[in-house]
UniProtKB/TrEMBL annotation:
The keyword Nucleus applies. Keywords: DNA-binding, Nucleus. GO terms for cellular component: nucleus. Coiled coil: none annotated. GO terms for molecular function: DNA binding. The lineage of its organism: Eukaryota, Metazoa, Ecdysozoa, Arthropoda, Hexapoda. The chain holds residues 188 to 526 of 526 of the full protein. It is found in: Nucleus. This is Jerky protein homolog-like. Belongs to the tigger transposable element derived protein family.
Length: 339
């Protein structure tokens, strides 16, 4: 999660890397060309019944969750997702808008996709060219969507680590405490942050007419530099000796992991750690510090954590309601880090 693989040799006690939670998941994203229909992310983990998701019904999760021994997408999972998620949600979307029941799912030629039915009525599939180079150039999700998703995820992760450190929790202890439930909500929040305009822009190589007809704007409303990312990571003791070149390498390495075809520039990297949002804030900062009733950022975050814990135990909230609580917690973390 953090830039451990690249800068481990710079850390005196490398053993800490072996103590963190090395669990991983596979994430699959799907959207139509103008971003008006973003399907819930598909998340594949190793465990069929993760402890952190105990007593949580799948319908209350903000994602489509499936399990596989190595947390990889296989044919069985893909077919299940296609029939239960893609077909149903696309059909509902078309019906609501009184559109013909016609759609094409564009996928690459991965082995996990090849067993899929060629069509489901007039909802059909179309495979990209076999060439890996051609796929990376044409695949819309590899034109910046995956990278943006990961950067939003990093924003939440690093901000959470910083908050834990301020509360006296070391990096190892905190990272070991991160569970699948939190990861699901973090990655879902990251998906929610991706705007339709950004999705449209990533379809332009496959469907150039979209950009011409819709006058798509760059999805990045705010920018952040490598220096700002470095400054945030320097607040974590284990990464205080990082250089800006190492941060750049970390970003590039993560992009390679996701088979992204290009390295985004600073102008295209949006909303990382400690980045201010373009939304109106309340004037809480103007509250008199001497007010004995002042609520600190830590107070707010602890209160939200208690609310999340309460409703998780009661199992009486919808998936959307729980997502809103996690999103509220993320906003509180960001405000705290800015103050």
């Amino acid at each position: 999660m953090l830039p451990d693989r690249i800068i481990a040799e710079k850390i005196e006690e490398q053993q800490w890397l072996e103590k963190i939670n090395n669990e991983h998941v596979t994430v699959m994203a799907c959207s139509n060309s103008d971003g008006s229909l973003k399907l819930p992310l598909a998340v594949i983990g190793r465990s069929e019944k993760p402890r952190s998701l105990k007593n949580i019904q799948s319908s209350n999760l903000p994602v489509f969750y499936a399990s596989q021994q190595k947390a990889r997408l296989n044919r069985k999972i893909f077919n299940e997702w296609f029939e239960k998620e893609f077909v149903n949600r696309v059909a509902g979307f078309l019906t609501e808008r009184n559109l013909p029941m016609t759609a094409i799912l564009i996928v690459d030629n991965a082995s996990s996709h090849l067993a899929i039915k060629a069509s489901f009525g007039d909802i059909k599939t179309h495979f990209l060219p076999v060439s890996a180079a051609a796929t990376s150039l044409l695949q819309p999700m590899e034109q910046g969507i995956f990278q943006t998703l990961k950067i939003h995820f990093k924003h939440t992760l690093v901000t959470s680590v910083l908050n834990a450190r301020e509360d006296g929790i070391d990096v190892i202890r905190y990272l070991r405490s991160v569970n699948l439930r939190e990861v699901i909500h973090w990655v879902n929040d990251a998906w929610e942050e991706i705007r339709p305009s950004g999705i449209s822009r990533c379809w332009e190589k496959l469907l150039p007419v979209i950009r011409e007809n819709q006058n798509v704007r760059n999805a990045s409303s705010q920018t952040i530099t490598s220096s700002e990312i470095l400054c945030a990571l320097h607040r974590i003791d284990e990464f205080k000796n990082l250089t800006e070149n190492q941060v750049d390498e970390w970003i590039a390495y993560e992009n390679t992991e996701a088979t992204s075809s290009t390295i985004m520039t600073d102008d295209e990297i949006i909303q990382m750690v400690l980045c201010q949002r373009n939304e109106d804030e309340t004037n809480d900062e103007e509250i008199n510090c001497e007010d004995e009733n002042e609520v600190t950022g830590t107070d707010a975050i602890n209160a939200i954590n208690r609310v999340i814990h309460y409703f998780k135990k009661s199992n009486c909230m919808t998936g959307l309601e729980m997502c809103n609580l996690y999103r509220l917690k993320g906003r509180a973390l960001t405000i705290k880090m800015k103050s």
